[in-house]
Design goal:
By secondary structure, this protein is mainly alpha-helical. The protein has helices at residues 3-8, 11-34, 82-87, 92-103, 122-128, 141-156, 175-178, 186-199, 239-242, 250-263, 280-286, and strands spanning 40-43, 52-55, 168-169, 222-223, 232-233, 290-291.
Amino acid sequence: MAFRQFLLFHKSDRQVVALLLLLAAIGVGVIMLTGREETTQLPVAAADSDTVIARPKPAPAYYQEAEVKAERFRFDPNTADSTQLLRLGFQPWQVRAIYKYRSHGGIYREKEDFARVPGLTVGQYRQLEPYISIGRDYQPAALLVAERNEQRRDSVYRSHKLADDETIDLATADTALLKKVPGIGSYYASRIADYGRRLGGYVSVDQLDEIEGFPVESKRFFVVGDAHTQLLNLNRLSVSELRRHPYINYYQARAIVDYRRQHGPLNSLDDLRLLRDFPQDALERLAPYVQF
């Protein structure tokens, strides 16, 4: 449009056209200003070079996952507070999910129940599983009934129980001798004997803590004398045979068999130290029960 033709417009029309042109100019200016990306210019190592490279902006803080060094210790998922859960390596949003589950009446009655925590991976659960300890208050009520029945029987046969200064050898005791321990009746005598068979023999009184609900006040009546254990040959057993032992889960049994296939026979437990399924405490627990 020629400027002379613009002057022939009515005064009100010229004002409208001028206003539209002004708004268009402002819009173009805003787009040009906001469309530029800020980059930090870094000179190339050579001092006399004019070449520069652009350093990308760091990701916003809320996209960066906090790096937490996970600790390992025994915990009850029904009572662990936020500080303990964070130390175990859980993210804050996972801690909130656990708290929400418990606030709505949710109870972790068995170790496997804890595998339902949102975002918990198979690898994380495998590492945490040996440290999960469900408190007696959260175990099935039927267990309490069985204990009370045992206590009633104990009161009848109290004269046959051990005195306060007497002990028995956990490594060799049968169920009849186990029932002489105060607080131990038929139910726990059977549990102790069965767990000892699965282990291949007891090497420490503290292994009784691995029996769910075991009355800790009865531990003082036990000692372990000359322990004799049944040894597992890690170079011969299959996955299904290995996992029968309480200290070897499926993933660890799979890792042992995979190692044998890739590297040949194991010479010692040191060969497993670099595998993520075998932290130091797992190797120490397993040491009395293996051979090569």
